[in-house]
Each structure stands twice: as C-alpha cells, then as structure tokens.
Write a structure and sequence with these properties.
- Helix content is 46%, strand content 16%.
- By secondary structure, it is an alpha/beta fold.
- The protein has 2 domains: 5-16 and 88-214, HAD superfamily/HAD-like (Rossmann fold); 18-82, DNA polymerase, domain 1, CATH 1.10.150.
- Strands 5-4-1-6-7-8 form a 6-stranded parallel beta sheet, with helices on both faces. Strands 2-3 form a two-stranded antiparallel ribbon.
- α1 (18-31) packs across α4 (65-82) and α3 packs across α4 (65-82).
- The chain is globular and about 55 Å long.
- The N and C termini lie close together (9 Å).
C-alpha cells in the first residue's frame, strides 16, 4: 500500500505539551485551594480532552458536573495564555515534516484538545506544514470517534486505507482502527508501547525518522 496522507495526533506525538497543560491545571487547582498533581500523573490525564483532564484532576469531593464545567472554563482561559510557553516539537519532528512535504504527502492534525487551542498550537509551532488542524468542538466527536478523521480523508479525496494515523495513546489507535486507517504508535509520547499494541497499533516507532522507512 502506498500511503498518501498522514493524520497526526498533537500532544505526545508532534509536541511535548505536558508541562504547559499540567501547569495550567495546577494553577487552577491552586487558586481553588485543591491539591495539585505531578507531571507524571498528568501523563495519564491527557488524551481524552481537557474536560476529561479536569475531571481526573479535581478531588473526588468536588467533582460534580458544575465543578467540572467551572474548572473547564478556567483551564481554557489559563491554558490559552501559556499553551506555547514550554511546548516544543519532539526531536526529529520538524525534519520529518520537511521530508514528508518533499514527498507530497498530505498532512493534518486531529486532536482531542479544544479546537481553538489545537489550531493555535499547530499554526504557531508548525506554520508551514498543516493546512488542516482539527480539535474538539463537541464531545460527541471526540476521539476515538473517527468522524473528523474520515472527513479529512474526504477533503483529501483519499481512501481511508491510504492514510496513516499516528498517535501516542490507546485513543489514537482506536480512532485509526475505527476510521480504517493504518494505526501507527509512537513510543516517545505519554503512554507505553504495550498500551499502544494492546489497543491496535500495527507498528510502534521509536524515532520520527522510522516513519520514512515505512513509506
């Protein structure tokens, strides 16, 4: 199969955003006099969108829908200010994107991060690579729902099986499978290789350059 398009997850795949996300949530928790969490803990909170992260980070005694909604609005406001402060591409990602562009591979980002923030980070950190960056606009379309991934394939006029879906979590691998795309895991993100394989990864790569060997 000749792959003609690649959809990337954002956090833990293209960029290491762990500290900015964690700092934003911890700032909110500190303001409310709630316990904060370590970066290691946030590795497992990330992946299912900021609303889910808020629910995971809040103490169980203050975890009603109203609490979550109020804190969600707070973290969006806080994270918007710092979302590119410490966030950087992983080593080798920019070189990989340059290579893919030279091969005329279509590129997109699909994240469970809020759509506004997905677009902001993608455009500021990768201004020359992604014409399409899609984030979460409604909970119903959150990964592993494949709807947005399939819409990208339609806009590209490609069959879904001509597309590689790359991510660092079980959610990404399930999205790829649900969309009938090639599920490719990366080991440098927030989850383990075992989790990726168990959730459907057909292959897990350890460095960005290994993707070129696949192509």
């Amino acid at each position: 199969m000749k792959y003609k398009g690649i959809i990337f997850d954002l956090d833990g795949t293209l960029v290491n955003s762990l500290e900015d996300i964690s700092d934003a949530m911890n700032n909110v928790l500190t303001t409310l006099n709630y316990p904060t969490h370590t970066y290691e803990a946030y590795q497992y909170f990330i992946g299912s969108g900021l609303r889910n992260l808020v629910s995971e980070a809040l103490p169980s005694s203050n975890n009603t829908e109203t609490d979550i909604e109020n804190c969600f609005n707070c973290i969006i406001s806080e994270y918007r200010k710092i979302c590119t402060l410490k966030t950087k591409p992983y080593a080798g990602i920019v070189e990989l994107l340059d290579d893919l562009v030279s091969r005329d591979i279509k590129l997109a980002v699909f994240s469970n991060k809020a759509d506004e923030l997905t677009k902001k980070i993608a455009s500021e950190i990768f201004p020359d690579y992604f014409n399409t960056a899609v984030g979460l606009s409604t909970e119903a379309l959150k990964k592993p729902n494949p709807f947005e991934a399939v819409e990208i394939s339609k806009n590209w006029n490609l069959k879904t099986e001509e597309i590689i879906f790359i991510g660092d979590s079980d959610i990404d691998m399930l999205t790829a499978t649900n969309a009938n795309m090639f599920p490719l895991g990366v080991s440098w993100g927030y989850r383990t290789e075992e989790e990726l394989i168990a959730s459907g990864a057909k292959l897990v790569i350890n460095t960005p350059s290994e993707l070129i060997e696949i192509l």
